[in-house]
């Protein structure tokens, strides 16, 4: 016969003492601790994001194609403008594509801004293996 206590609600299961271990008491919730842990996690993620953006993002190096001209069967001339840090240099990758979208030529060039300037406007010839349809600047990054 199992032992029953007056504090057990009728219909609640009664387990033999010691057989299933001690029952847990309902724990106190700690919302302040959860909020602090969440805030700390968000702060760490924010710091990591800023570090990675500074390391891999290039907000100081932007390029815009002004025009592409001089299209022949073996070249295209791309005129473009690059924004660099004041007095800095950038290495830019230019490419030429044919009408069907295939790359038919590319060249890497380094541009340097005059002292005190942030913008460089330049022209670069891109040699091609077939007639190009368009000339474009793929990316610019810090020179070196």
From TrEMBL:
It holds the Pfam family DUF4307. Keywords: Membrane, Transmembrane, Transmembrane helix. Residues 1-23 are annotated as: Disordered. The chain crosses the membrane at residues 32-53. This is DUF4307 domain-containing protein. It comes from Micromonospora chersina. The lineage of its organism: Bacteria, Bacillati, Actinomycetota, Actinomycetes, Micromonosporales.
